[in-house]
Structures are given as structure tokens and as C-alpha cells.
Amino acid sequence: MLQLLQDVALGRTEATPLQVRAAIAAVQYTHPKVGEGGKKEQRQADAQKVAGRFAPAAPPKLVAAGGKKV
Fold this sequence. Notes:
The protein has three helices and no strands. The chain is an all-alpha fold.
């Protein structure tokens, strides 16, 4: 559908107005807009970016006791 609309826009293909309207309606379901998404999805993505900075550190190694618990 997107290819049809691009061809019509560039003058490569002749299409009836009904075909163009149908392609416009169909392309909305096959190709999402850039940045399309809700507020919740955006907040979740932002939270995951920040969470990587505050990952828990590895526990200290027990070097003084030869690796055994005291």
C-alpha cells in the first residue's frame, strides 16, 4: 500500500480516488507512524534507560578468608 501511494505521488501510476483512499486507510494499519505510542510506553522506555545506570553492584569477594565464610 505504501509503495502504491509513493508511485501515485511520483506520477508513476494512475489510480482512482477510491483506490487512493483505500490505500491511505490500509497503510495506517501496516506501517505505524514514527514515534507512535502512548504515554505509558514512553515512560516505561525512559525508566528502563535510567534503570541501567543504577543496577545493583556485585557482592564483594571473600579474599581475606581464602574464599570461605567465617
